[in-house]
């Protein structure tokens, strides 16, 4: 973007981003072992995607790897498979973003094993909502915003992983405080 501010490393920090002309420092990082930080002088939402490796996705992937998280851990947000009718389906979560509780509704076309869980951006299981056999029909449940130990999860992006014997889909849910 053409309105980028400057930020330069100090101390043990190091440069990780420069502007398109390599004229301005605009991103720094510091790795102090178990304590890592990344700071930028720009907002990711204002970046214009380039070609090749110059994409927001590539930038976020690099940042997540720096923090030890694997982006795209086999969890991907998808649309329902609409090639067959009726089909197993995860409906839109409400409200989303969610402050405390969120209603999750899904339908099953035939008797099948169902798994419904909340995972974080690194693909780690946060909360198992349901695992078992379901008959055909529509079902709803409420996620109270807690993990498997009953502790409230922190604000951030999570995914609802829904799978049956012949269908799997993931839907993003944003948790706010």
In short:
This protein is mainly β and 177 residues long. It is 6% helix and 41% strand. 12% of the residues are buried.
Major sheet: size, sense and barrel closure? 4 strands, antiparallel
> How far is the first residue's CA from the last residue's CA?
31 Å
Structural class: mainly beta
Query: How much helix, percentage-wise, in residues?
Result: under 10%
Give the CA-based shape.
Answer: elongated
Give the overall average pLDDT: 80
The overall strand count is 10
User: Major sheet: order of its strands?
Assistant: 7-6-9-10
Give the SSE order as H and E letters: EEEHEEEEEEE
Instruction: Enumerate the spans where pLDDT stays under 50 for 5 or more consecutive residues.
Output: none
Which key terms come to mind for this protein?
single chain, 177 residues, mainly beta, four-stranded antiparallel β-sheet, three-stranded antiparallel β-sheet, 1 helix, elongated
Task: Describe the protein's topology.
Elements: E1 14-18, E2 25-32, E3 35-40, H1 56-66, E4 89-90, E5 102-108, E6 112-120, E7 125-134, E8 137-143, E9 156-164, E10 167-175
Overview of the molecule:
This protein has 177 residues and is mainly beta. Helices cover 6% and strands 41% of the residues. The strands form three sheets. The chain has a four-stranded antiparallel beta sheet with strand order 7-6-9-10, with no helix packed on it. A hairpin with a 4-residue loop joins β6 and β7 (125-134). It starts with 13 loop residues before the first strand and ends with a strand. The mean pLDDT is 80.
